[in-house]
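INFO worker-7 received task bundle
INFO bundle size: 2
INFO processing item 0
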Amino acid sequence: MKEDCGIVGISLQKDSLLIFDYLYYTLHTLQHRGQESAGIAINNEEGTFIHKGMGLVSEVFNKKKESIKGNTGIGHVRYSTSGESSLENSQPFLIEDKDRLFIIAHNGNIVNHKIIKKDLESKGYTISSSSDSEVIGYLFIEKLKETDDITDAVARLMEDLKGSYSVVILYKNKIIAFRDPLGMRPLCIGELDKQTVFHNNSSVYESNNTIKGFIIASESVAIDTLDGRLIRDIKPGEVVILEDGVITEEKHLVKLEHTAHCMFEYVYFARPDSVIDGRSVYDVRMAIGELIAQRANIDADFVSPTPDSGVTFAIGYAISSGLPYIESLIKNRYVGRTFINPNQEDRELMVKIKLNPIHNNVEGKKIVLVDDSVVRGTTSKRIVNILRKAGAKEIHLCIGCPPLISPCYFGVDFTTNDELIASKKNISEISEMIGADSITYATIDDIVTAIGIEKDNLCLSCLTGIYHI
């Protein structure tokens, strides 16, 4: 399973060399949402700067970074939900025709993008990538031909797009940000009003200047990085426009009877220190762990997480069960998250070098091993095998996400039933395949209770097979 993409848009009240620093550091904060490619775009009086490449933020942009002055910019970290992992599909995308030029970054997945792309190409547009994000950009140009009003163009865009999307567009000195009407992918806004602390290089330091402005990002942790203040989440179906460091427009364009917030943001995607739609991700995961423990009642010596994804769930389980929380595995932190590598061969190789057991803690012990999810089952099988070889007497898996039985078409990397072990095997068969003594999943009711959003307003399609679109 791969991560969601991460997006950020920043608008400052005055030109500053720190615009690049702000984008650079916030992309670092969102790195967990995608490690295949990264990109930054900045507009200033001299024109448009875009730099993007394959790899981590630190690999695409060296520590010296760039001395680029400006007050408006966007950034993106990617994994491939639509389109292969390649430089041509990396974001942000430059979108232009004879009358307009803007840059777009997108998180989500447009399920009807092939139909839209075919229609746009019939009208003479050349779409060079296989990414649905570029399709959104050229469709936006088409809508701007129908109306000069930006918010009206976004409203018309929303009428045509089917799927999940949070978008930031860099247009002249504006940031145009909007979120799909179902609210599947997160997007929040924060205020910047602080004395700067980042050095661009040894010769540039602006600590005596107060930089004011606003930031829009996939997760609130990006706002925290700049010591900003989280204002709120952008509403499903809302557009927010920033210009010269102020909010110039906020308009709720489409309001549906129900939303479909992705439950996987809380279970897996987001950092635990993020707040999404008013809910602390950490608190949600803690609550899920507590609910599993109340039902599982496993006789064990201690509770242990699969680092780092299972940590918060395991703490909740330990608190509720009264069992001690003890580490059984140590993570090599110089290896990226296993599930976001583009192919299965890479995923399996990563597990081998990513985790190592603490033999003294494991040998002869009955362990409750807690993780966030089981998708294909291959990673869990290898982890259980590592602990068996280290001498574990019993291994009882507890999983923070209910069984994944149906594909996701809205931005998660399991688009066929063949990739989902729970679509083909029952719980006892999964436990046997993985090599665990037992496996206990969170239930859908656990998820709904822990998140605190009504069931009808959550996207649970991968758990139920019932789709909102």
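INFO item 0 finished
INFO processing item 1
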Amino acid sequence: MPLDGLVISAVVHELKEKILYGKIEKIYQPEIDEINLHIRCLGKSYRLLISASSHHPRIHLTATAKQNPPSPPMFCMLMRKHLQGGKILSVQQKEFERIIAIDVENYDELGSLSVKQLIVEIMGKHSNVVLVEKSQNKIIDSIKRISGDVNRYREILPGKIYIAPPGQDKVNPLLLNKDSFLSLFHRGTKGCPVQKALYTFLQGISPVTAREICYRAQIDEDLPMAYMTMGKYDALWDALTNLLQNVTSSNYIPNIIIGKSDRHVIDFSSIPLKHYEHLYDAMVADSISNILEDYYAQRDLHERLKQKSIDLRKFIVQTLDRLYKKMQKLLEELTASEKSEEYRIFGELLTANLHLIQKGNTEAEVINYYDEEGKTVKIPLDARLSPAQNAQRYFKKYAKAKTAVKEIKVQLEESENEIKYFENLLVYVENAADIQDLEDVRNELIEEGYLRKRKDKEEKIKRKSVPLSFISSDGFQILVGKNNKQNDALTCKIASKKDLWFHTKDIPGSHVVVISNQQSIPETTILEAAELAAFHSKGKLSGNVPVDYTEIKNVRKPSGAKPGMVIYDNHKTLYVTPRHDIAARLRQNKTESH
């Protein structure tokens, strides 16, 4: 969801509670389109993030300290000149738009008090931060200058009169009564869907909020306005006013929407979004700023992980594609080579019938003594060779084919192991929780000789790579490897003989170990560990995933095997469907246990 009128109203409410009448102590500009204000209010320090980013424009309090450039940009210097040391007099949302105006009182160069207005426009790629001399409504400067060549309606340049973004003839929903609401919507295009009409006619209503209003009114969001009855209008009005009561009463319930399976952030809101309830989970916080910071941090991490993993994923997928083709070719060669038994029989039959075959013949038809019915078989001959030489030729072909079968089977086994290895790597890349997880996979590929070590790059300080740790409902520690190196360490070094080892059956995934501490492991813990194994595998979105488990003493790593590759016996198999919240729930157990 973009920061619509509802979210902006929640942000303004929080800023009024925390920084109103506060003093702006420091101002930084860590990004070309981002300002940070350090504010002291009622004995507490706050950091206000204001971003005019084209992709993620926003305004909220933040606990994150970014690195600042060695020399502050010109706009930052100007902000310091006019606002640093100033007192925040007001924080207002302009009508129900995505515009916030912050009034700051400060002494000017002549020692006189004056009020500057910092206007934050959250408008997607047109977002901006504008500093205005309030008494004259004159622009001092902006983080993005907009000339008349770009926008004839409003120039955002020093010395120009500030003009707010065009309102697009939208109406402030907070000022509507039922009659004006009906009049407004009756003027709409009859073919316009209800959802679109809501965000087209009303200020601050995003498509997601419009969908929520339709859902609460139990009206199909795609229903054309021409089919709206009076009863439906009543329901729509009731849903809208009910939703806006959160704003008028400042009853905000900030929440972040996350996927049930992958736990990725989907959306956020300042009110509960009921139309999401059956599709996603919602996590509530007491601060809209905390929600926004968490959402954008996770989105930023997800985007950076996606970007950083592109080349790694591409290499692994291309390698797998090559290995699959190699396997197919080897299987075809094996099928051809397995005809070696036919060559031996031809040689034997020719040897037994030398007296019946003449040199120069291109074919010999003889009784096949190996056939139960004693049928004849036609054997192709080389006319240049004698019957005995033809027999020897088939014996040589038999010997060569037999040797080839052995070699092909060795290559097939090697290719199969290599495919399993790279399929595991692909799972670890897809399950990477941070950049270091990706670097661990990359470093492993370098160590195994698949990738070259990158040159001309400073050696980064590596974080110690450790498995994921969970606590079962019974209080047992469960460890999960995030890559092959961790799997080896977990299975071959960390775990003890009586600990239980888990892995999805014939499915790429992580090694999972339950630390027994020489105790009997309950069924509940076994089931939870099996779920974790399924969740951290290629089968995480499947049902009835087979998971093998056995004691560590039954797990062995063959000599020369690739990282993460083991063999095991004396195992049992469970079939589980991993619950979407299993990892989060068992992590919570870990937190509570401390």
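INFO item 1 finished
INFO post-check item 1: The longest helix spans residues 288-337.
INFO post-check item 1: The mean pLDDT is 92.
INFO worker-7 idle
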